[in-house]
Amino acid sequence: MENKKEGIGEVETKYYTFAQPPNELVLESGHKLGPITIAYETYGNLNRQKDNVILVLHAFSGDAHAAGYLKSEEKPGWWDDMIGPGKAFDTDKYFVICSNIIGGCKGSTGPSSINPSTNKPYGLDFPHITIRDMIEAQKHLIEHLGIDKILCVTGGSMGGMQALQWIASYPEKVLSCIPIATTLKHSPQQIAFDEVGRQSIMADPSWLNGNYYEKGQPVRGLSVARMIGHITYMSDQSMEEKFSRRLKDENYSFSFKTDFEVEGYLRYRGDSFVKRFDANSYLYITKAMDYFDLSGKKLTQKDKKHDIKFLVLSFESDWLYPSYQSREIVKQIRKKYIDVMYCEIKSTYGHDSFLVEVDAQTNLIKHFLDKIKG
Fold first, then answer.
1. What distance in Å separates the CA atoms of residue 235 and residue 232, rounded to the nearest whole number?
2. How far is residue 88's CA from residue 359's CA, in Å, rounded to a whole number?
3. What is the mean pLDDT of the chain?
4. 91 neighbors 367 (Cβ within 8 angstroms)
5. Contact present, 340 and 312 (Cβ < 8 Å)
6. Which of 39, 189, 270, 315 is buried most deeply by CB count within 10 Å?
7. What is the pLDDT of residues 85-143, one digit of tens each?
8. Angle at CA 176, nearest 5°, toward 171 and 179?
């Protein structure tokens, strides 16, 4: 409990509801969604000029709780090492906002939310959402908070996609962008991993075509999907260092029990995930990532002056979002003569590096943000 007094300390998740009928949010698909609730947290203080805002955008299974401690939990937020006094996103200087995406299951409106027209969970009646729709919802939140311009948008993995979408959708509202371990579009391999995860969920008899909320969710399918995903988050080297071929017992069981430590670890990860995440959200969010495409001229397509500075970060051992995809982001930015810094950070942690390599990211981000004037 003593740790809760360090860094940011205790925090509280807040909620904002908008898009009340008949003013629902029109989604990229053409469908409407409303009312919409957004769960969000803030850290630090908004200054008088309201020009010290950093919008942190979470990855696939993340949520609004990026830093500090919730009263009911012992673990800090998912980027606590990066957000707080003196940290990369220094809350002595900046007002940091993190919101849960629409389509998620951590307080924002998603497929497990109650559909006001049926008074039952949406399930597959929830409309398909895109990364652009997530940004539209965030924009409503930002406006609700009275903020006109954002000093920096940042995030890793799917958070990086959202940061890039902010630039594509509202370049006039953002001064700088730090996309980390991300891409302009999913490759066929990335779509393939997502599809295998989705199929494992939909093949579970307990999925019930998405209408499982009264009976319990498809834990087997969701667990397998998470196990597949978790393999892609690590690197060959980090798995070797963490598990090698170590056995749980001294000898092989000559059965399908968990002989190897890596097998037990993946099962533990899968079992833990089903307790905190909704299977239908898994389907909708992975599909949103697959639809995301800012390749070609789409990142900076608008005929507007892009007075935005970029810091693009990737990690040497990340094979889920390899560095060549970050270099493609840099290439597209440089074509528009926009200021961009790029760094590939040496790391053995694979895609998870953006959550682990705190010191290297902190040095780069602090130096970068010091040059951005609100």
1. 7
2. 9
3. 95
4. no
5. yes
6. 315
7. 999 999 999 999 999 999 999 999 999 999 999 999 999 999 999 999 999 999 999 99
8. 95
Q: What is the pTM of this model?
A: 0.96
Handedness of CA 208, 213, 215, 218 (dihedral sign): positive
Q: Select from 17, 282, 272 the least CA-distant residue to 124.
A: 282
Half-sphere exposure of 169 (CA within 13 A, CB side): 20
Token pair 């307990």 is found at 206
Q: How many CB atoms lie within 10 A of CB 319?
A: 15
Question: 358: which 2 tokens?
Answer: 């705190």
Beta strands in 34-186 (DSSP E): 36-43, 53-57, 69-70, 83-84, 89-90, 95-99, 114-115, 120-121, 152-156, 176-180
If you count them, how many residues does the chain have? Answer: 374
The structure tokens listed for 97 are 């906002």
Closest CA to 147 of 49, 213, 68: 49
What is the DSSP code (8-state) at residue 313? E
At residue 55, what are phi and psi to the nearest 5 degrees? -100, 115
CA 335 to chain centre: 27
Report the alpha-carbon angle 24-139-148, nearest 5: 135
Q: Annotated active-site positions, please? A: 157, 318, 351
- What is the token pair recorded at 49? 């000029």
Please report the DSSP string for 183-225 in residue order.
-SB--HHHHHHHHHHHHHHHTSGGGGGG--TTT---HHHHHHH
What CA–CA distance (Å, rounded) separates 130 from 35? 17
pLDDT digit string, tens, across residues 244-290? 999 999 999 999 999 999 999 999 999 999 999 999 999 999 999 99
Token code pair at residue 240: 């070797």
- Peptide bond before 22: cis, by omega within 30 degrees of 0? yes
Angle separating helix axes 261-274 and 219-233, nearest 10 degrees: 120
Cα–Cα distance for residue pair 127/103, rounded to 1 Å:
9
Strands 10-11, 69-70: pairing kind: parallel
Tokens 């559909």, residue?
A: 115
Q: Which residue has the tokens 């959708």?
A: 169
